[in-house]
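Now for my pick.
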Amino acid sequence: MGSFRDGDMASTRSQKVLRDAFRGFMRIHVLHHAAKEPIYGLEMIAELKRHGYVIGPGTLYPLLHSLEGARLLRSSFKLVAGKRRKYYRTTKSGDSLLVKLRAQISELVREVLYEHDGPAK
């Protein structure tokens, strides 16, 4: 019975690590798009879904608010079809961070995908 629990705990820990990694990927993805053009929540939910991230407003909006709170995004409102829509763009700090992230991602991708010795043992 002990090994079953150990397996469950390892699986739970693995799922948490995976979830945390994907949250990081989503943040980078949001910054990437907000650097290119103004973005809004529902648009980003659809964009992230295209890449396999199935999230709802309860996940995305806190992510956007945390990036805004960190001064990586700034928001503005526009009237669209008679309704106020909140748009986000990167700040100078967000753009600078994205440059650093791209360099780190590039290095990581080279190492993980092209310089590995085969599957982990």
